[in-house]
Specification:
This protein has 406 residues and is mostly helical. Helices cover 82% and strands 0% of the residues.
């Protein structure tokens, strides 16, 4: 092996080490706030919040968590202080969770849920942008799939820990307090990532360019609109948990157990979908969305076993969000504005999420058949937008001069 080949292999190894290190950070981070997600709905209800209020609070939280990413991304591109913004975001995101143990009323608990989402908004575009520097050497699908798989592993472990806590007859507050351990481990891993990889842009050296779009293309906007429609069809687990508890289809510690099982399904789906995307492209997205569209009927009208099957498909939906939508945007990034590009995409995505959460929250107590029809239609309606975006991207690349491709 020649000197240049050895250098490239070493560089590729470093790039993958960066993916894995950030993946460990996200494993413990997801363990923290997904553990909280498993009991947020029930905790709010125990403090007096209605099912509609829970869905709307979750929707507003997700909207803030997505819409503010454009601000964070713009600030990161403008100042170059992406690590500082990342650290601030993780700190706010993670420490708001154990603080829930101190909430004395549902408005206070709801406020902490919103603070947690704001922290996630601060750090999300910088993390996605930093990961994009490694995609040239390992494939967009595989990089985001591995990171998402580690995310989702933490997202499965957190609810399992909470389920065990509830099984031992501990309170919701004890569960929130225990999540401080995972939060501390996430922040410690983040320090390691900062020390080992102070300038992630260097990971791109020696490989193909990872962001070649000239500004925000038609494909980018089509992907954003498709993502907004897809987001409108993702029911929050808070609403699902309240539904299961209210109907008795699934109760007690089984609710976080079901969330963990669905999340494990998402881990497997992320790896499979990421690898398939690198091989066959947009067809993977279409198949994943079509499969995910089966979840609402099973979840909102099923019994114990049927709900579990529905939540497995719900896990596929979240794998699509966490892996494939990031891949689509990573394929149309403008080089000098990649943080803002991710943040702006999530602004549209968050708008779709808010509209969907408000609609599902209002429909739940009025007409569950209409609720299911709305969710299914929103998911299916995203498919033509993704196909049009892929076609627009392909047309643009075919018109570029030789050597100008990613």
């Amino acid at each position: 092996m020649g000197t240049r080949a050895k250098a490239l292999a070493h560089s590729a190894s470093a790039a993958f080490a960066f993916v894995m290190t950030l993946g460990v950070v996200n494993l413990f981070a997801d363990m923290t706030y997904e553990g909280a997600t498993a009991i947020n709905g029930q905790f709010l209800a125990s403090l007096g919040a209605s099912a509609g209020a829970v869905s709307i609070i979750a929707g507003i939280g997700e909207f803030l968590g997505y819409s503010l990413r454009s601000v964070a991304g713009f600030a990161a591109d403008k100042t170059g202080r992406y690590w500082l913004i990342t650290f601030l975001g993780y700190s706010v995101n993670l420490l708001a969770v154990p603080a829930m143990a101190l909430a004395g009323s549902w408005p206070v608990a709801a406020a902490l849920m919103l603070v947690e989402r704001v922290g996630r908004a601060m750090r999300k575009p910088t993390v996605e942008a930093m990961l994009s520097y490694s995609t040239g050497k390992h494939g967009r699908g595989w990089v985001y799939a591995v990171n998402s798989a580690l995310d989702e592993t933490g997202a499965a472990l957190g609810p399992l820990m909470i389920a065990f806590t509830l099984y031992r007859k501990a309170s919701f507050r004890t569960g929130y307090a225990l999540l401080l351990v995972a939060a501390a481990l996430a922040l410690a891993a983040l320090v390691v990532a900062r020390v080992m990889f102070p300038v992630p842009k260097r990971l791109e050296k020696g490989g193909p360019a990872t962001a070649t779009a000239r500004g925000f293309t038609r494909a980018y906007w089509l992907y954003m609109i498709g993502g907004a429609l897809f987001a409108a069809g993702l029911a929050s687990f808070e609403l699902v948990a309240v539904h299961l508890s209210k109907t008795g289809a699934v109760t007690g510690h089984w609710i976080p157990v079901f969330l963990s099982i669905a999340t494990i399904a998402g881990v497997v789906a992320s790896l499979v979908l990421g690898r398939l995307y690198d091989r066959i492209g947009i067809g993977t997205v279409v198949a994943a969305v079509a499969l995910a569209a089966g979840y609402p009927y099973l979840v909102f009208f099923g019994g114990f076993r049927t709900v579990l099957l529905g939540l497995l498909l719900w896990g596929v939906a979240y794998a699509t969000q966490d892996t494939l939508l990031k891949v689509l945007i990573a394929s149309v990034l403008p080089g000098s504005r990649r943080n803002f590009a991710f943040g702006l995409f999530y602004l549209g995505y968050g708008g779709g999420w808010l509209a969907g959460s408000l609609t599902t929250g209002l429909l739940y107590d009025r007409s569950r058949p209409t609720l299911v029809a709305f969710i299914t239609a929103a998911l299916i309606a995203s498919i033509p937008l993704f196909l049009l975006g892929a076609n627009a991207k392909g047309s643009l690349e075919s018109r570029r001069p030789a050597g100008d491709h990613a």
